[in-house]
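Question:
When you can, review this sequence-structure pair and walk me through the tokens.
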Amino acid sequence: MFKHSLLILLMSGFLITRASGESLPGKLNVEQPQSTVVTLYSDKALISQIFNSRPDAQGTLEISGLPINRLDGSLNLEYIDGDTVFRPEDVFWYQGGLDRDNYYRNLVGKNVELFGGGLNVAILGKLVSYQQGIGLVEGNNGRQYFIDYHDPQGLRMLSLASSETQGENLKYVKADFGQQPVSGPLRLSYITPQLSYDSHYRLTLLSHNQGRLELKTLLTNSANINFDQATIRLVAGGEGGVPGFSQKSRMLEASLVTDAGDFAERVGEVLLTTLPKGTVLPANSRQLMDLFSEALHLEKLYTLDVYGRSTGGRTSTAERPRLTWKFEAPLDLPPAQVRLYEQDPDGGYIISGHSWLPKTTAGDNAWLTMGEALAVRVERTRIDVEQKSVKELVVQWQATVSNDQQDSITLLIRERDANLIKLDSVKGATLEKPDQLRIEVAAGTRKAIHFTAKYRR
């Protein structure tokens, strides 16, 4: 009875130890970490994990479960104990994954099946040689067959036995720490393109110049790894790189950012968003999440960018301005595409425009430029050209704005010529900036304005 109870106690202790994330000496499975931080970018992910695994007596640590599609050069292993860091002397792995030449090289000496290339029936044989897409198969019928994978009409072969590509020696990375007396937790990090996210804004127009801005994100995990107890973060505005492994960034990873805090925390020049605790990334999955929803006051504008000196003669130029929505950013906004939703006459919604919102700081004005206007037109006529001096040119302009809508509009005409000195002698419009005019046009009317533009020669 005593022995039976002792056996149960020992087994229970073993189960408790295994459940706590500990592993056997010399073994590490990336799906059994103490903690994980998944930092997602638009095209990749930085995975940072902490383990309590230890090398075996020879200083070897076998790491299994890493995704095949990863940036091998990004793999980083280190034990950190205070200010002391222990790194492996050597990290080794077999070339595996979807490498055609490696796969077929491992079939040399094994039985294969030949097909295609004009064969009426499949031929069984043994692959006796293979190199860079070219192989030689000795058929069971006594004949030899030449395989050339550069020939699209040539013979192909299938393995009749398991390849070493699927063997145990390719399922792990081997790190050699030598005789170092390692201590402290083990930190492992790597970059993989199999996890990423894609965000977009949904801007819904409501009544009385009001709208609602929503940010949605699509999380993608194409790896065969479940991240069900991880801290998941999104980085926006810094797609050109991935944070390095400085002591400061290691401390940030170790803290796990357990409190989500406000949306889009500033870290240097990027915006870092921590998703709510409990967010999971199941293997081979996608999920759509709402990051925030904010009410906005919108200003509807029409904008027309012109290059005055490029318009020659007195011929009128008919142009359509572009619809632009202006609003004050309620918080720091990451860059993303914007879809504009507008209510149709039947009470449903249509997508009436697309735009791009650049990275915008809270309190700054955001400008969303949509497509060309349908019921607003501008006709510009070059009235006169006067050569003031060798260095200055003055052009007189008349512009007629037609508004066929049932609401009044505001039009901005912006002179984009780099040699513009200023706009002057404005009639029928307001000079907002040295290079910008503001025109108010009532519903269903036309309005003519006059101004001069002074250019450097």
Observations:
- The first helix runs from residue 2 to 19.
- The radius of gyration is 33 Å.
- The longest strand covers residues 285-297.
- Confidence is low (pLDDT under 50) at residues 1-21, 240-261.
